[in-house]
Amino acid sequence: MCGDNYAYMEIDNGQYMMAICDGMGKGKRAYDESSTTIDILEKMIEAKIDNEIVIKTINKIYDSGHCRRLWYQSDDLLSYIYVCVIW
Known about the structure:
By secondary structure, the chain is α+β, with helices and mostly antiparallel strands. The chain is built from 3 helices and 3 strands, in the order E-E-H-H-H-E.
């Protein structure tokens, strides 16, 4: 099990979103971190939230450290996400 995850989905009117997420660390913890990040991204995109707001929101969640404390009581986790929208 590794911390790499991805998403690919049609957004709207021929637009597509592709994302790669790398949960830092190793094993299940890294996988959970990146999987949750991708899930949040997909749900926000499906809800038709503006792309820029989606990315800013995900960044704010991680910048606050709230997710790391909530999930693992640790500050050593982080996810890097790369998102591309094609139209």
